[in-house]
Amino acid sequence: MVEGVVRPGEQEGPGAGGHRGGFSVPTGAAGIDIVDPAVEESLGTVLGAVEDRLRASVFSADPMVTEAARHLVEAGGKRFRPMLVALAAQFGDPRRDEVVNAAVVMELTHLATLYHDDVMDEAAVRRGAPSANSRWTNSVAILVGDYLFARAADLSAELGPEAVRLQARTFSRLVHGQIAETVGPRPGDDRVAHYLGVVAEKTGSLIATSARFGGLFGGAEPPVVEALAGYGETIGVAFQLSDDLLDIASESEQSGKTPGTDLREGVPTLPVLYALASDDRDAASVRLREILAAGPVTEDALHAEALTLLRESPALKRARETVRSYAEEARDRLAPLPAGGPRRALESLCDVIADRTG
User: Fold this and answer.
1) In this structure, are strands 125-126 and 129-130 parallel, antiparallel, or unpaired?
2) How far apart are CA 207 and CA 113, in angstroms?
3) Are 256 and 11 in contact (CB under 8 A)?
4) Sign of CA dihedral 154, 180, 78, 147
5) What domains lie within the chain, and their CATH numbers?
6) What are phi and psi of 95, to 5 degrees?
7) What are phi and psi of 357, to 5 degrees?
8) Engineered SS bond to 76: which of 16, 80, 145, 282, CB 3.0-4.6 Å?
9) What is the pLDDT of residue 260?
10) pLDDT for the residue numbered 1
11) pLDDT of residue 199
C-alpha cells in the first residue's frame, strides 16, 4: 500500500497524507493493491518529486500571490491525477523527468479549476480550510486560478507542442462542461444523460489526459497510451459518481464534507436525478420525489427525512450499479495493456471505486 493515503472515512483536510512529499491518493479500506515493490517505490518517488515541484511552481515574486497560490497546494488533497500520471508512466520509463512535469501540469490545472469552482459555488471551505474566495475575495480567487492555469501552460510548453495541444483541448472540455452545468439541460433533454455528459467533460477529461500524459511522457507505445487515456476517462467518471454516492450514503464525513451537503445545496447528483425520474408509486418514492422537486432541502427535519429516504431508495441502488458499470468498463479498457504490477494496480483502483460506496 502506498504511504500517505487518504482512506474512506478519513477527511481530506490540511496536511492530509504523510509528507514523504506530502502526497495522498484515494484508496479503499485495504488500499490500492500495488503488489510489485518496484512499482510502489517508483510511485512514491514520482509523487514525492511532484509535491516538491508543485510548491516551487506556484512561487511568485509577489508574496501575496505565492501565499494564495499555495493555499490549496498546502491543504493536501487526493493527488488523484498525479497518481494516475505516475501509474501510467510505469508502462514506459517512469524515471523520465518529463513524467514529474506532466503530473504537475495536471495537478495545477485541477487546482485552478477548484479556485474557480469555489467562486461559482460561493463555497466557504475547501479541504477543511477556508476557501480562497472567502479568505481573499472572489476576484483574487479567480485571478489566482488564472495564474495557476498560466503556470500549467508554461510547464506544458517545456514538454513540447503535443503537451500544449492536449492541455488546451482538455481545458476546452473543462470549460464546456462547466458551461453545460451552469446553463443546465435544455427543454426536452434527458437530465441524467446531461449530467453524465457534464461529469465526463468536467472530471473525466482531465483524468483521461493525466493517464495519457503518463503513458506519453513515460515513452509507452501509442496503442498503450490510447488504452490508458480511455481508462482514465472512464475511471474518472466512476470516481466522480462515487463521490456523489458518498455524499448520501456515508454515515460519517467519509466524503470529506457533511453527508447530504449536495442535497442541502440543491445539487442534482445522480441518485437525486434517478429518484426524480422514477415512476415508482410506493409511498416512500412518491414522498422522496415530492421533497426533491421543491429544490434545495435546507430545513433540518426535511433534510434528514430526504437523506433517509434516499439511502433506502431504488435510486441509490441504481446509482451504485451505474458506478460499477463505469468501473467495469474502465477495467475492460485495460485489456490491451501488458500484464504485471502496473496493470494490477489500475485494476485495483476499479475495485476501490466500485466498492467505496457500499
Assistant:
1) antiparallel
2) 13
3) yes
4) positive
5) 37-256+327-355 (1.10.600.10)
6) -80, -10
7) -105, 10
8) 16
9) 83
10) 34
11) 97
